[in-house]
Write a structure and sequence with these properties.
This protein is of the alpha/beta class. It has 12 helices and 12 strands.
């Protein structure tokens, strides 16, 4: 038995923190290096929230390619001429290539630095309001502890407009090549649905301001690679390590943002870890929508085993009927097995009640799979 709390909030809101302002000599060093760079790249994370427009203006001023961590991808218009995509196994080839060619990387409010996909000797400047984040993953030539919005504003006031036509042309060529590749990967086919095709189709249906919660698994990689993000808020497990994260997180998101669309994307390996929470969502009649990719295995691990020439013992799954299971908990259930079934996703998202769509799909290997 539960009841809504009606008493007034007892504790006052915490005081507003003033913007952290770095020392003038540190800002001078940042401006000097940024001014000398001819092939700059910005790597932005969730820490730029609230300052994204300033970050874009600064990138346009110094003509820097913009790479984003997964939670920050929706903060930058994905069709912006300077946006190169994500970084890492699920990221874009254009982002990896441009970072390899760059002569400076400015990290703004991010800690993501996947060692296998980054150059080893590129000079790095890191800007973060949290001192402990500076240098966590990479030594920096300049460390700026300060409010990202304040730092970027100072740079905008001090930096002249740069004209780096050769670098701009290179950015566009890499972007166009990557976009063509993604269009090929996400095109409809007569065979089994691929994760790439599913993410592309789902991206046309999800509300631009929805909360999208990602569990841990192969689907997370395909999501970043091919989902066309708008302004959605992305919630992920830190370091992608917590199987079963998505369903409880989706419940929390729905409780905190009533009326806002909440989509959870889960895999058949991670979902069973917390699937008992279907009962919680059903009891509260939370209209969360689960898109469950069923490829019959722990695909991320299975494909890494294959890449290493190992036996894939333990990677395959013996799954239940997820549709009937969801219905037993009080969810509406849908099964999608081929291209012609994709309209069911639109139907599922539209209903005002909890629902799950089980998508039978292939377990193809992500092109960037590493051991």
């Amino acid at each position: 038995m539960w009841r809504e709390a009606t008493d007034e909030i007892f504790y006052p809101n915490p005081p507003l923190m003033p913007p952290l302002q770095p020392q003038p000599e540190v800002m001078a060093e940042l401006l000097s290096r940024l001014g000398q760079s001819t092939r700059p790249v910005f790597l932005v994370g969730r820490g730029i929230a609230g300052a994204e427009e300033k970050v874009i203006r600064l990138a346009e001023t110094v003509q820097a390619a913009i790479i984003a961590t997964m939670p920050a991808k929706s903060l930058i218009p994905n069709d912006h001429p300077l946006f190169a995509g994500g970084l890492g196994q699920a990221g874009s080839q254009s982002a990896t290539d441009l970072l390899q060619m760059a002569d400076l990387c400015v990290i703004l409010g991010a800690t993501w630095w996947p060692q296998a996909f980054v150059p080893q000797k590129i000079p790095v400047i890191q800007v973060d309001r949290i001192p402990e984040n500076i240098g966590r993953t990479r030594p920096c030539v300049t460390s700026v502890v300060g409010d990202v919005s304040y730092v970027v504003e100072v740079c905008l006031q001090e930096m002249p407009q740069k004209d780096q036509a050769e670098w701009m042309e290179l950015i566009q060529k890499r972007k166009q090549s990557w976009q063509k590749r993604i269009e090929e990967e996400t095109s409809p086919s007569a065979g089994m649905l691929t994760p790439a095709r599913l993410m592309s189709a789902l991206g046309t249906l999800v509300d631009p301001r929805a909360v999208i919660v990602l569990d841990v698994g192969d689907h997370t990689l395909w999501f970043e690679r091919t989902f066309p993000l708008k302004q959605q808020e992305i919630l992920i497990s830190g370091k992608w390590r917590t199987l079963g994260f998505a369903l409880p997180a989706a419940i929390a998101a729905a409780l905190n943002h009533p009326g806002r669309q909440v989509i959870a994307i889960v895999g058949d390996g991670g979902f069973p870890v917390t699937m008992a929470e279907l009962a919680t969502a059903a009891a509260r009649r939370l209209p969360i929508k689960l898109v469950l990719l069923n490829n019959g295995c722990y695909a991320m691990e299975k494909n890494r085993m294959k890449s290493a020439g190992l036996h894939t013992l333990g990677a395959d799954l013996d799954n239940p009927d997820f549709v009937r299971l969801a219905e037993a908990f009080g969810f509406s259930g849908y099964r999608i097995q081929k291209e012609q079934d994709l309209p069911l996703l639109k139907e599922m998202i539209a209903i005002d009640q909890p629902a799950l769509a089980e998508v039978i799909c292939a377990d193809g290997m992500l092109p960037h799979t590493r051991i």
